[in-house]
Design brief:
Elements lengths: L2 E7 L6 H13 L4 E7 L7 E3 L12 E6 L4 E3 L11 E5 L5 H7 L8 E5 L8 E5 L5 E5 L10 E5 L5 E4 L4 E6 L5 E7 L9 H14 L6 E7 L5 H9 L9 E7 L3 H12 L6 E6 L2 H8 L3 H4 L20 H5 L8 E7 L3 H13 L5 E6 L5 H9 L9 E6 L3
Parallel strand pairs: 1-2, 2-4, 3-5, 4-6, 6-7, 7-9, 8-10, 9-11, 10-12, 11-13, 13-14, 14-15, 15-16, 16-17, 17-18, 18-19
Length: about 400
Amino acid sequence: MRRFHLIGGHGACMSISNLCRWMISVVRSNVEDIYVQFNGSYKNDREFRVPGCVFTCKSLTKLELDLSTSCKIILPNSISLPRLRYLKLNNPSFDHVELTKLCTNYPVLEHLDLSGVSSSEPLNINISSPTLKHLNLVHIGYYNSIHNTLRLCAPNLMYLVLSNLDYMLLEDVSSLVTADVGVQLKPRKLNAKFWRIHAPDTLKSLKSLHNVKDLTISLRPLKDVRRVQELLQEQPFQFCNLQRLKLQKISLSTDSVHAIASLVKISPIIESIKLELCQDMETRNNYNYSESDSGTEPEQEMESDPHTSETTVDLQGLLSDTMKHLKSVEISGLQGSDNELEFIEILMKNVVVLEKMVLKRQYRSRIEKLYKEVENFPRASSSLRICFYFASN
């Protein structure tokens, strides 16, 4: 048997015990591809002890488990999958020991996808693989009070997606082409080590992405976005191959605009910029980590931010020499604020070969005013097309 795909649940025939019997049977048939989507009883199926023979199957090349009940996975003590190239787990619950076992012992693994992994304790993920090409770690240990860390060494990695990490150290990702990362500018609870250790490592993580062509960044928390500019000024580098940049959940405040300009300035051949704007209420809901997140009293800040002074930067000067290759700009979630209009105007004055600008409003109100103001801005590129959309479009 080469492939075994099983989808079901919420019935006696799909209890955890029967699921284990199915998997044991197919492993005995030298299966190569296992996909199981299990929607078992939330009350009765809280733990899934994966049969030991599954993780010692010599023929298995692809394993995908979608456990929509978020039941806890218990792995066998021995793991040996010499031919496994693709591993994907969706919605499992792990403790640190189980996750450590999961991220090792795969000599030819090329694709690792862990989505919706929950945990009641911090997850310290250490991945070192010379064969890994695709890594997706999304919503890892997603409780707000949890501090999650990643240390990654994957010299042949080409595609990377990361989220919900307070600390990431990308030691070797020199082959990376596409990256989608959440950059934590400050830990959820500030401590004395941050300015000495974590801030330089944040910059080191950005530096390690210098070869990528497609980059998506979520900067967190937004109120500290000015630190991007400060970090880049302290230790400058370039995204020498970057062609497409996307910034998610960002505002167009003065600090944010300067951070955007700083990133564009170190991307000499950038061709496309996409900005997904969020409003103040969304920003507070997503990134304001307070004592209510963890149910405990807030920790005292042991060391203050040494970079508290406001930075005054000439935005026109930052962007004037960095738009020579820019062909496309897309901004969604616009409200028509002065900062937004100023940013759009500066773009239009400095772009040389820009072909298309897409502006998406959050609401229909004031669309005519925004349209008239933007249409009257001077343009450096005579062939520029401007498209207006509502969010519903």
